[in-house]
Amino acid sequence: MGMLVLRPAAARCALVLAHGAGAGMEHPFMEGVGAALFGERIATLRFDFPYIAAGRPLPPRVGTLVPLLRRVVGVAPDLLSGLPLLAGGKSMGGRVASLAQAESDLAGVRGLVFLGFPLHPAGRPGTGRADHLSGVDLPTFWVSGTRDALADPGLLRSTVASLGGRATLHEIADADHGFGVPRRSGRTGEDVWGEVARAVSAWVEATFGF
Prior knowledge:
CATH architecture: 3-Layer(aba) Sandwich
CATH class: Alpha Beta
Helix content: 25-40%
CATH topology: Rossmann fold
Distance between the termini: 30 Å
Number of helices: 6
Structural class: alpha/beta
Number of domains: 1
């Protein structure tokens, strides 16, 4: 299984960053956010789920991906020199990490990071995909666009609020599920990736003191 580590010389912590359903670890969003986190002194470990490596366009049932993510988390301390560890990912990747932690503790993981958590299918608002999070006792950080078709802003805010002090939400104005923003905003993809990384960095410092 291919993996990619980006580790700054003075890294503060590391994030196992799983990809979304439709593209792998080399998608521009994954590369852009990884580079932006590198600039914030946060190391990342990216990898491809097997269906991506096999060239299949659609993922299997999400729960079947949990064991692989758990294995990646298991080897992360050796690959990242024992840095304090977080886990999460883009869309489906973050959901897989949350399901894994709800099932049983991810070894050594101190918090979860969700970049565009897919709260519900497009056009079918609901919160059932977050029900398992009531059993997750780690701090969680949610980054979501205010135009995300898979995370109605009102439902997402109420979901995060229901988790109490262990959950924090950062909203990116006008961003869609892929964190794209309208041209009229005057912002580029790099601008948004930078905001994502700065928000994660600020949460890490405030929550863990790293």
